[in-house]
């Protein structure tokens, strides 16, 4: 990143100075433009360099070894709508809300002595920083090579979570759609069988898996809590269903109902610093996120929902202590002796941390939804050569082998929140693994895995069907 305008100014000044000093030298002075060296940096409004650039590393700031950086590009918008005015020279925004959301650049702290856990660590740092700055109840995850293709896609996902039963939905997964693929799709980048077949089928059970991009999360589900549930499944295979114990009182008077609509302020897990870290401001934001993520109380069956106008309260202003706290939670030491990466947020230790993270939420009883919009919600760039495609498939295959272990999925042990039918699709690979294991063990001993088939005796083992019984008899062959 650097400001190209400053580079043009430097070259223009050098060109003018050389032209004035060598007016009789003709066009030879233009060759000196190649000697201009402009410092690669991004300028800030106060005239200083942007600290997030490391084209020229320094002892205290380089790529992979730098302090946490957080820059607020645009402040939170006003609570009241701001409508645009007609303008002949520009786009007509009449009747359109022209407020811009808060935009923040975040670069977490990195040092060689700490494991930054790649994408999973970056997402966990972003979850903590955003909880302190904005604390939105929903989080959209997009890879760097994807962009929003349908502006209404986020509203589609929020409708699932704010409708009846939305308090039990942990995320809404959208299919991956790519552009730049050749007409024959020689590398199978569309993944039609997976996104249009398998994911649709999983949506009929507990929900699709999280594929790492194009996913709208409920923030409260990422914090390791269990969803509110109506049934529990017991037994060895979860075959018995019974009603879950109701923690709340069966009958509440008017005062108790009003207190139920307020954010949960006293939860036993919120007082454990070893679980969420030692940031008081972050732990206080968890109850607010849970309250804001509740479904709308627009039906009699919605229990403990949001009343109309509950989210229209003005936000507190963004001050310097809040920004400083957000910088503190993205430090490399904040996750020490906590449950981040093991039970909270994105899970560490796997090549496909996205699939493992989704399985952990399913294990707690959360559901997920597969949303296919008429217009593609998001689009990305696909691998354009065989090498990139092989590397991509190899990474997916490696992660698929890792998630077969019981550390990540409920193999044969359905929890009280998950019926046994939800675990059956996750155990389809066991016969295949048994077959491959036997093949590996028997190969060195020269023991054949399959009995050879002799064509001479094959006709005696097949049932004889007379020609006149065949539904579609073939015509006789010519002599």
Automatic annotation (TrEMBL):
- GO CC entries: endomembrane system; membrane
Q: Positions of the region Disordered?
A: 1-35, 56-83
Enumerate the residues binding Mn(2+): 119, 143
Give start-end positions of Basic and acidic residues composition bias. Answer: 1-13
Pfam families named in the record: Cellulose_synt (PF03552)
Q: Which GO terms describe its biological process?
A: cell wall organization; cellulose biosynthetic process
Keywords in alphabetical order, please: Cell wall biogenesis/degradation, Glycosyltransferase, Membrane, Transferase, Transmembrane, Transmembrane helix
Task: Classify the protein's membrane topology as the record does.
Answer: Multi-pass membrane protein
Q: What is its main location?
A: membrane
Intracellular or extracellular location(s) = Endomembrane system
Bias class Low complexity marks the residues at 14-34
Give the Gene Ontology MF terms in alphabetical order.
cellulose synthase (UDP-forming) activity
Record-listed UDP-alpha-D-glucose binding positions: 118
Q: What is this protein called?
A: Uncharacterized protein
């Amino acid at each position: 990143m650097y400001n190209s305008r400053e580079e043009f100014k430097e070259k223009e000044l050098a060109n003018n100075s050389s032209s004035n000093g060598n007016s009789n030298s003709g066009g030879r002075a233009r060759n000196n433009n190649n000697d201009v060296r402009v410092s690669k940096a991004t300028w800030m409004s106060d005239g200083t360099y942007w600290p997030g650039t490391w084209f020229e590393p320094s002892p205290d700031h380089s790529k992979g070894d730098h302090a946490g950086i957080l820059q607020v590009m645009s402040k939170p918008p006003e609570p009241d709508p701001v409508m645009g005015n007609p303008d002949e020279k520009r786009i007509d925004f009449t009747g359109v809300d022209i407020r811009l959301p808060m935009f923040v650049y975040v670069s977490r702290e990195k040092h060689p002595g700490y494991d930054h856990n790649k994408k999973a660590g970056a997402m966990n740092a972003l979850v903590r920083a955003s909880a302190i700055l904005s604390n939105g109840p929903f989080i959209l995850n997009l890879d760097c090579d994807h962009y929003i293709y349908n502006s209404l896609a986020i509203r589609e996902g929020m409708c699932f979570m704010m409708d009846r039963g939305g308090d039990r939905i942990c995320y809404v997964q959208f299919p991956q759609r790519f552009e730049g693929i050749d007409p024959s799709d020689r590398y199978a980048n569309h993944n039609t069988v997976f996104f249009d077949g398998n994911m649709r089928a999983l949506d009929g059970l507990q929900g699709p898996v999280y594929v790492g991009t194009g996913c709208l999360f409920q923030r409260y589900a990422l914090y390791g809590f269990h969803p509110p549930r109506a049934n529990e499944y017991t037994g060895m295979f979860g075959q018995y269903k019974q009603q879950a114990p109701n923690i709340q009182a069966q009958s509440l008077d008017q005062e108790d109902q009003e207190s139920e609509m307020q954010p949960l302020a006293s939860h036993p897990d919120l007082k454990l610093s070893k679980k969420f870290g030692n940031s008081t401001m972050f732990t206080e934001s968890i109850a607010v996120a849970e309250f804001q993520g509740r479904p709308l109380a627009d039906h009699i069956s919605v229990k403990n929902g949001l009343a109309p106008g509950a989210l229209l309260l003005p936000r507190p202003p963004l001050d310097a202590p809040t920004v400083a706290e957000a910088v503190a939670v993205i430090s490399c030491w904040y996750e020490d002796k906590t449950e981040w990466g093991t039970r909270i947020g994105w899970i560490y230790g796997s090549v496909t941390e996205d699939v493992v993270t989704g399985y952990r939420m399913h294990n707690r009883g959360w559901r997920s939804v597969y949303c296919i919009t008429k217009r593609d919600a998001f689009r990305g760039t696909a691998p354009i050569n065989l090498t990139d495609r092989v590397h991509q498939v190899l990474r997916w295959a490696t992660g698929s082998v890792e998630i077969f272990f019981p550390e990540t999925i409920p193999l044969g042990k359905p929890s009280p929140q998950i019926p046994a039918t939800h675990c059956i699709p996750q155990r389809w690979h066991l016969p295949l693994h048994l077959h491959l294991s036997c093949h590996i063990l028997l190969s060195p001993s020269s023991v054949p895995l399959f009995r050879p088939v002799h064509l001479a005796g094959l006709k005696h083992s097949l049932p004889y069907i007379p020609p006149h019984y065949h539904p579609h008899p073939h015509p006789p062959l010519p002599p």
